[in-house]
Amino acid sequence: MSRTDPQLAELEQQIARTREALGQTVEELAAKVDVPARAKAKARETAARLREAQDHTRSRVTQAAAETRSRAEEAAAQTRTRATQAASRLRPGGASEPTPTVPLSVESGSHRARLGPAASSSSRRVPPPAVAGATAALIVAAAIVAARRARRA
């Protein structure tokens, strides 16, 4: 029986390996059949991926908002400077050149009266284009700041 003992031992080892492989196969099949567990695992993966995307988007938005805020503050400062300069030029005695005036229509455009800067308080002065642009930029910047403050509140 010396021949059967080694053959028997090898057969027993082969049976043990087969049982182990069969056990692993059964576990894999059970995992595939366990739909609720697979759904939960997939939900966890998706939630983690969405949280990561949310964090990335939040950081991008925060950075863009900071850059926009910085640009708006810079534009507002430039607009204030330009408006101050323009206002000093428009003040009586502060301008080196005479201020242009707009002809006023008396009756539906049939009669026009030209008034000088000191004629009356009803005369309208035409601001230089830079002042008009600076004023518009200041209004836009103020609207942006107000909208952001409203969102935060």
UniProtKB/TrEMBL annotation:
Record's compositionally biased regions (Basic and acidic residues): 35-58
Transmembrane segments: 130-147
Keywords: Membrane, Transmembrane, Transmembrane helix
InterPro entries according to UniProt: DUF3618
Composition-biased stretches (Low complexity): 75-89, 117-129
Top-level taxonomic group: Bacteria
Name the UniProt record assigns to this protein: DUF3618 domain-containing protein
